[in-house]
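Subject: sequence -> structure tokens, single chain

Hey, anyone have a minute? Need the predicted structure for the following. Not urgent.
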Amino acid sequence: MTANEAYNTYKNMMINTTVDKFQIVAMLYEGALSFAKKVIEAAKDNNEEEFSDSINRVIGILLALRDSLDPNADKETVDYLTALYNFLLEKTIKAIEDFNEEEFSIVVRYLAKMHEIWTTIVMKKD
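Reply:
Had a minute. Here:
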């Protein structure tokens, strides 16, 4: 699956679903985090196919998250999240060129923290 296909899949899911929008964002964070971890494992195992597939999925999810931000929401929040998603996209794309586990682990740490914040604060789940 290419990044574009992944993006379109998640975009359609965001539009054509009865699942709560907050739950969808939580699922996207979970998916991105899971695939980011698979990127690291695939790199360790020299599994180019898994590496490519997983990194494309991370990119697709990050694009979906960034592009689904509500432009009518608080401008400061939207600008911050846009910049954050762009930063994570940049790190992820850089990983394609020259994989550095330590550098890519930044993406994993951010995604883990964002998922935690989203599920415990925004969605108020324990």
